[in-house]
Amino acid sequence: MQYKNIAAHNADVEISFEVKELEKAQELDPSWKLDPQLLCSGNGTKVKGGLGPFGLLVLASKGMQEHTAVFFTILRAKKKHLVLMCSDQSRSSLNLKNDLTTYGAFVDVDPVHEELSLRSLVSCNETP
After folding, report:
1. What is the rounded distance in angstroms from the CA atom of residue 52 to the CA atom of residue 75?
2. Is the pTM of this model over 0.90?
3. Which CATH code fits 11-16+26-115?
4. Residue 66 binned pLDDT confidence (cut-offs 50, 70, 90)
C-alpha cells in the first residue's frame, strides 16, 4: 500500500500483521550469532525467505533512491519462534555523512498468539 502526497509535517502510521503459516519460518541456523543488529545488517540476507522480511518503507523518495525500511522477520528456534525487528537506514539518504546504521532487536511477541504491530511516528520538525 502506498500513500502519496502526504502534506502534513507529521505522520502517524500504525499497521498490524496477523502471521499465519508459521511453519514456513526459516530455521535459526546455530552458526548465526544471536546478534540482532548483525542479522539485520550484513547477515540480513541470510534471513530472507520463509516469513520475512515484511513491514514498511518510510520516508521514501519518489524514485525509491532514499527510503528507510522498518520490518520484521520471524525465525524458528528449537522450541519457539523469534521475532526480529529491524530498522534499516542504509538507504535512507544519498548523503553519506548521515547516520546510515541498521538497528535490530528481538521483540517479545509470540506470533502464535499475538499480532505484530508497528507504529511509526514521522516528524518533519526542524530544530535550530
Report:
1. 9
2. no
3. 2.60.120.560
4. confident
